[in-house]
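Please produce the structure of this protein holding hypoxanthine.
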Amino acid sequence: MDQIYLKAQEAANYIKSQVNQIPKIALSLGTGSSVLISSATIIKRIVYSDIPHFPTSRVQSHVNELIIAQIDSQKVIILGGRMHYYEGWSMKELCFPIRVLQALKVNVILFSNASGALNPNYSAGEIILVNDHINMLPDNPLRGINDDRLGLRFPDMSDSYSFKLRNKLKEQYPKIKEGVYVSFPGPNLETKAEYRMLHRIGGDLVGMSTVPEVIVAKHAGMDVMVLSIASNICYPPEQITETTLEEVIEVVNASGELLFEYVSFMVSAIEESPRI
Ligand code: HPA
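Below is the modeled complex.
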């Protein structure tokens, strides 16, 4: 994807033409997004295919709409659907929505996703606060000539999962567990040997998404938080059972209310102190 800066400006201009005031907080939702969306007050829905250059998720469990919504008294932009590397998108294509948020001057982004639990202390359905990642995808969205208007050539990743945002959530919910998310390409779920390897290299969760967008969001200077719903147990190997998408969706949906509670809390906390 060439000319990302200009294309993101065009997409952002279209969104601005549809919306009175652009919120500064974005939510990028993965599997199970519909529960969260149905709990928010919808102000405006824009289907992805109406936005210039915007990709459209081909995954049935995702909602292909950009939504302006209100959670408590705070307005947010919701990306209802996410693109994945395994769908065939290039890294730059699947991260384009984050570039559009950058063009809209969004400065905080909260992601949700579903993942497999590599940490034996997690249970199915538990929501984990991601505190770091290991990128095992075979490409990087920043590869190629750097456009300095978008960010630095060598962005620092030491606080990719904002320490301040995490602390805010932990003050309110001290029992929430934290962990490292490993991105693996998919679309097949991992073998037992792969789960064992990912556990050994320091992963607590494994999933097929989010890391490229987090890299781009950091490149764009945003504060990032990721909440991951551990949907299936992947370690130790004797506890692994066959997993289907339907089961993942069921477990994720059952955690939807708590996810909404966490997100609402964070949205209000950010509203009170915009650069926490
Ligand atoms: N592996 C990769 N992605 C996932 C998994 C998994 O076990 N569960 C939910 N998303």
